[in-house]
Design a protein that fits this description.
Helix content is 34%, strand content 16%. By secondary structure, the chain is α+β, with helices and mostly antiparallel strands.
């Protein structure tokens, strides 16, 4: 120590000259009053039963009460060796005391330059997590992993979906970084911001010009504080561990296998696969083969619906140029005429109306239009020849003569010839079989009577 140490003789002299300690010493020797004169005596009044005087020095228990002139010297002695606050307090409590001693010890340590430049880091600040972006690929975190297998790997992770993308490069330069970022931007678009550390590839002027030209905000983490870019740091660690476990194939093959599985696995934070969150769909994998084929199921359903519908359906064919009736939606006429000019689908057509307008109609809204005379005309009535057709009157019938009678007999009945009338076309009348016995009953009954 540069200063002279404090002795009991000095403490005795300082105590006599100190107005507060001199009065307290008098109270200890002669008795305490019922009230104190000022607030400076409050610490002594609270300890009055423990204070004593020995050889004109005031004691609190076995600790010497140090007057004001010697306190700075005692603090220097306690801080010899630049001990910390706790060790200084423990050492002081075995020898000395004065009001606010602990606070002055703390202030002495905090004011020591050598102690401050060599002290431990302060406790970590409360965590301030990154705000979760609401849209995919709006903020990405990038970092380099390696050297690994003689290569460097640019690791990029989307803050929204946790989608991981990795590109292999020979060296971590700004040019290689920009080239790989262009490839990713061509697929996913430009992000709003990029978060990186202060590495040379990201801190160069070339990289700064690149992000500015593309309207991207570049956020760099604090130096030697990797937790600021913790998303990329964790992605680098995950990628390294995954590459060590995949041992078959080239570097590109191993990297593709790892990324394929990682992107399809639901993330612990989002509980959704990164690829599904980024692309809005779940990419197909071998595990999809375990599901029944939904396409065949849908086709079977559609086929059954078609069969049920077509039971009452009727196939009607329409060709371009056909004259048709189409269903009208006005109140003047339910069906209006037009000409079919174009087919737009299996059952959809474009029809030109008589007024020049064109409308689109479904086959269910179209009917064929037939002209009064078609190409296959019916024959004219004058071309039909007159054909005599026998007509049997209601009171006459042809009756055959009984067997064995002579055709020349005078008594036999003559056959009445039917008259032929040709004023109009008539059909030949053929009585049904049930009337056979009535018309020809003579012959039938004669046979039965024999």
């Amino acid at each position: 120590m540069d200063s002279t140490p404090v002795t009991a003789q000095q403490i005795k002299a300082w105590t006599r000259k100190d107005p507060i300690l001199g009065q307290i010493t008098n109270y200890v020797l002669k008795g305490w009053p019922n009230y104190r004169d000022n607030d400076e005596m409050k610490p002594y009044f609270s300890r009055k039963t423990e204070l004593s005087v020995f050889d004109s020095c005031l004691l609190w228990g076995n600790r010497v009460v140090i007057p004001n002139p010697g306190r700075d010297i005692i603090l220097q002695e306690l801080h010899e060796g630049h001990q910390g606050i706790s060790r200084m307090k423990v050492l002081a409590r075995g020898y000395v005391w004065w009001p606010n001693m602990d606070a002055e010890i703390e202030q002495t340590v905090r004011a020591c330059h050598k102690c401050q430049v060599n002290r431990h880091a302060p406790p970590e600040a409360p965590m301030h997590p990154w705000e979760w972006p609401s849209n995919p690929w709006s903020r990405i975190h990038i970092d380099y992993a390696g050297p690994l297998y003689g290569k460097m790997f640019l690791v990029c992770v989307d803050a929204h979906s946790k989608y991981l993308d990795v590109h292999v490069v020979n060296s971590a330069t700004s040019a290689n970084t920009i080239e790989k970022l262009r490839t990713m931007f061509a697929i996913h678009g430009l992000p709003e911001s990029i978060v990186s550390d202060n590495g040379t590839p990201f801190a160069s002027q070339e990289f700064q010009d690149f992000v500015q030209r593309n309207g991207i905000k570049h956020i760099r983490s604090s130096p030697y504080q990797p937790s600021t870019n913790g998303l990329a740091e964790r992605a680098v660690q995950t990628f390294k561990e995954g590459m060590k476990k995949v041992t078959e194939g080239s570097i590109e093959t191993r990297m593709a296998k790892f990324l394929f599985t990682y992107r399809l696995t639901p993330h612990a934070t989002t509980a959704i696969a990164p690829a599904e969150m980024l692309m809005g769909r779940r990419p197909r994998s071998l595990l999809d083969l375990t599901y029944p084929n939904i396409n065949s199921r849908v086709q079977q359903k559609q086929q059954r619906q078609k069969q049920s519908h077509d039971k009452t359906a009727q196939v009607r064919n329409f060709n371009v140029g056909d004259s048709v009736y189409i269903l009208s939606h006005n109140r003047e006429a339910k069906w209006i005429t037009g000409t079919l000019i174009k087919r737009t689908g299996p059952v959809s057509f474009v029809i030109e109306l008589n007024d020049g307008r064109t409308v689109k109609r479904h086959q269910n809204q179209i009917r064929h239009k037939y002209d009064q005379y078609s190409d296959n005309k019916l024959p004219d009535i004058s071309e039909i020849p007159d054909i005599p057709i026998p007509v049997v009157s209601d009171n006459q019938a042809d009756v055959e003569t009984p067997s064995g009678s002579s055709d020349t007999s005078d008594n036999s009945k003559s056959v009445v010839k039917p008259t032929v009338e040709t004023p109009r076309l008539t059909r030949t009348r053929k009585p049904p079989n049930r009337w056979h016995n009535v018309l020809y009953g003579v012959e039938c009954w004669s046979g039965l009577l024999e």
